[in-house]
Write a structure and sequence with these properties.
By secondary structure, the protein is of the alpha/beta class. The chain has two domains: 145 residues, NADH:ubiquinone oxidoreductase-like, 20kDa subunit (Rossmann fold), CATH 3.40.50; 94 residues, no CATH class. 28% of the residues lie in helices and 12% in strands. The chain has nine helices and five strands; from the N terminus they run βββαβααβαααααα. A five-stranded parallel beta sheet has the order 2-1-3-4-5, sandwiched between helices. Strand 3, helix 1 and strand 4 form a beta-alpha-beta unit. The radius of gyration is 19 Å and the shape is globular. This is Coenzyme F420-reducing hydrogenase gamma subunit. Keywords: Oxidoreductase. One of its GO terms (molecular function) is iron-sulfur cluster binding.
Length: 255
């Protein structure tokens, strides 16, 4: 089996998702890392079979580099909340950037784009692997599928399905704990609800989420508007479905 020529690229992010490759030594014999910030000192952009891209695009240099990567790559995969939805740094998109730079004593030297955006707003993306950070098993399954010329499977169903398969009771119904599980993608193993904490939405909105219904439920247990908004102000805040809530375009129907 020929090795896949891969690159692992970092944009505005914390490095957590590219570090997941360190958890998968069983795959290293099948991957020829041609560019990897954590794993190689030599960094030359060459033609690649797959580019794994972590982080959001926040500077002009990053906007130009992602276009260069796209030109040299057969399959481009974004990994993690920053690359797929803008990450926690995209929270500034809901404010005027000057409000932040004015707080810095030398703010005139901060050179960033007006918004921090997901990679798909700049180039064509072939696959998105969600999470903060991504799940090693999902990444392993993706790579194996590519190696065997199969269609990769990335969960897009609600976290609640994963949670119920573990035999747990719903934290919202049983304990009235606010939880984003019904509208968030599976993939983390339902870590938070399994220890009686509400889901924080690390994996972003699932396919066709019923956000309005969940907001109604939150209101039903007495959450105020500000409390509800804060639940969506997370690392996936700039994902389309969450962004609509923060922009006041999705509201519940109850008073």
């Amino acid at each position: 089996m020929d090795k896949l020529r891969v690159g692992v690229f970092k944009f505005s992010s914390c490095d957590g998702c590219q570090a997941v490759f360190l958890d998968l030594p069983q795959l290293w014999d099948y991957l020829d890392f041609r560019y990897w910030l954590l794993g190689r000192s030599k960094r030359v952009l060459e033609p690649l079979d797959i580019a794994f891209v972590e982080g959001s695009v926040s500077t002009q240099e990053e906007a130009e580099f992602i276009r260069e990567i796209r030109e040299k790559t057969r399959v481009l995969v974004t990994i993690g909340a920053c690359a797929t939805s803008g990450g926690i740094q995209a929270l500034r998109n809901f404010k005027n950037m000057r409000e932040f730079t004015s707080l810095h004593p030398e703010g005139m030297f901060i050179r960033v784009l007006d918004k921090s955006t997901p990679v798909k707003e700049h180039v064509k993306v072939d696959y998105e692997i969600y999470g903060c950070p991504i799940n090693p098993q999902i990444l392993e399954g993706f790579i194996k599928a590519i190696l065997y010329n199969k269609k990769p499977v990335i969960p897009d169903y609600p976290l609640c399905m994963e949670y119920k398969l573990r035999g747990n009771v719903c934290v919202m119904d049983a304990y009235s704990i606010p939880c984003l599980g019904p509208i968030v993608k599976a993939g983390c193993g339902a870590l938070c609800p399994s220890v009686k904490r509400g889901c924080y939405g690390c994996f972003g909105p699932c396919k066709e989420p019923n956000v309005e219904s969940l907001i109604n439920w939150f209101k039903g247990i007495g959450l105020k508007e500000g409390d509800i908004i804060s639940l969506f102000e997370n690392e996936n805040a700039y994902a389309d479905e969450f962004r609509k809530v923060l922009e006041g375009k999705v509201e519940g129907s109850q008073d």
